[in-house]
Amino acid sequence: MTLDLLRFTTAGSVDDGKSTLIGRLLYDSKQVFEDQLAHIAQASERRGGEGTLDLALLTDGLRAEREQGITIDVAYRYFATARRRFIIADCPGHRQYTRNMVTGASTADVAVVLIDARRGVLEQSKRHAFISALLGIPRMVVAINKMDLVDHSRARYEELAEEFEAFARKLRGGKNPRRTETSYMPMSALNGDNVVWRSQAMDWYEGPTLLEYLEEVEVAYDHPLARPARFPVQWVIRPSSGSQEERDYRGYAGQLASGALRRGDEVAVLPGAARTRIASIETYDGELEEAVAPMSLTLRLEDELDISRGELICHPDQEPSVARELEADVCWMAQEPLRAGGRYLLKQTSRHATAIVDRIEDTLDVHTLQRVAAPGAGAELGLNDIGRVRLRTSVPLAFDPYASNRRTGSFILIDQASNGTVGAGMIAAAGA
Amino acid sequence: MSVATRPQLSHLRALESEAIHVMREVAAEFERPVLLFSGGKDSIVLLRLAEKAFRPAPFPFPLMHVDTGHNFPEVIEFRDRRVAELGERLIVASVQESIDSGRAVEETGPRASRNRLQTVTLLDAIAEHGFDAAFGGARRDEERARAKERVFSFRDDFGQWDPKSQRPELWNLYNGRIHKGEHVRVFPLSNWTELDVWEYIDSEALEVPSIYFAHEREVFSRDGMLYAWREGTELIDGEEIFSETVRYRTVGDMSCTGGVRSTAGTLEEVVLEIAATRITERGETRADDRVSEAAMEDRKKAGYF
After folding, report:
1. What ipTM was estimated for this complex?
2. pLDDT digit string, tens, across residues A180-209
3. Per-residue model confidence as pLDDT tens digits over B106-146
4. How far, in Å, CA of A225 to CA of A242, rounded?
5. Cβ contact, residue pair B283, A421, below 8 Å
6. Mutation to test the B interface, candidates A234, A351, A402, A427, most B Cβ within 10 Å
7. How far, in Å, CA of A388 to CA of A321, rounded?
8. Is the pTM of this model over 0.95?
9. Are A145 and A188 in contact (CB under 8 A)?
10. Last residue of a domain, one of A162, A196, A221
11. How many domains does chain A have?
12. Closest CA–CA distance from residue A290 to any residue of chain B (Å)
């Protein structure tokens, strides 16, 4: 059984057919409304002449973007079939590509990477695959698009799939190996081949269409019992008026980040050393015997403990790391570079800390995919750079490595002066 | 434990859980949040989500309605009743008062609408009460400018939205840091569609104002839409008042919200109608989005909902 909500990301430039592919998914799954269709039909004819229908226009964005012919930002799109609801994070490939792809990838279950069958495996597709793997997206679909322009050639498809697979193998190895499952599909988004409908022109392909795949694929929440429970306390419910009984109420509210909790379970409250048991699991709709991620719920505990926002409830035999020093891959998103000695606000789960950058270990070259040792003093991470950084925090954090838990292994860095979100961090390990 | 008894989250429960998480983050990270409640279906859902997030305690914020003075009376009646049931506090910010005090200037002519004036009243009320976060019921599926908006949507001290310098929003880690005078609009329903909202209202058995169901009404036809006729409406040459069975897909100012011909008289029938509809919610019912191709984008930049 699968969760019936799937989030996936696409990335690419105007030329590789990303907008057409999304337009095709929306159009063939009957998600385009008549007024939208009339609107794009008008616009298509204005630009392309009578009788043309450019599905790419369905994802047309803001006026500033149309004027400049670029896409500024991640756009979210929605469609549904009888099987599932889908959320697409549609990431532009032109400007700020790393920042946008990282943002879109952070919540995705599946990445759809586009390859133009004529132009072959280009750097941008590799970069998207690399960022998808770095962000821990468990599954990747490589859509080999524009097959109509290479005579639907099976040989060309296999050549490109092999070339990409050699690259994907490299992504799975190395430091922080991530298990990204990769599938390949020959497609023509323009004609709708293997997007929603099976291709007549490519009967040699026996795998699923893109939509069939997206409807069936399992997501991370599908096996909540297989993973340790992590419950960051978000908010303490404590009525300040009413009867004595009401005023005595203490509920610890939050969203279960992973795993499952049952009534009566012994739990630890981190980063302290407190232990207690779950007295009840409450929701507005009644009490539960068991809760699984990603439910929002309220825990009541057997003992009166002084627990506040930012603490983490888990099972005592499955505790995460607790540390004030950590190593993380940071994607930098601000004009002003990150430097050793820099101080930032850090938010991880529901916890805030001040973080000091001790050292930049290396930077990742997104072109060669090599880690380049940082030159020691004077090293910096510029806009759209990704690098391994050592941090110290003002308070201890309870975390898992990002590779095993995307919710408790991630953080953002906030600039103390501008309040902007300037960095996205993925924890590799506790610092030595 | 066997796999078969494992609780499974439907997409509605997953969206609900995400929205509750967003609401609790706001309660925890802001000093003075407010929830914008119009009596419309989206904000009705917000109220239920707030109950789920904060009960048995009272909401850690008041509710606020920006009243254009041209609202459907059925909606105002519903608003007051719902607020009383919840036992929460409602602030009414009045567009009429903004006009009387000279802060806003009434449009004239047959196409006059108070829709744009709401922005003045809203921003004034946010400043007056010192609100630093305002929950709204907007969804990304509504409109192309909304598709790119964050869940925590930052507004500068002029209340403006700048689509080019939005904060990146990663995982479920929302950045609620702002300077004095700035505020954040928060959209817990960002990832919901119109159909999700109706299915949720149905599954939660929530009451909605009667105008969402088919009823007979005096209307006139303008620009292909059916507008409610009320005392004082100026008709343009050739327009006639007639009686029609309609319902509303959105609840807004009477002057710019059109009804749709419909016989859907129950929640179930409304859900079926929405599931089968071939026209978007805003395309069918909102004259305010028809002004130009980028109408919503412009209003949002100026501080609209």
Report:
1. 0.92
2. 789 999 999 989 999 999 999 999 999 999
3. 888 777 777 788 888 999 999 999 999 999 999 998 877 78
4. 38
5. no
6. A234
7. 19
8. no
9. yes
10. A221
11. 3
12. 8
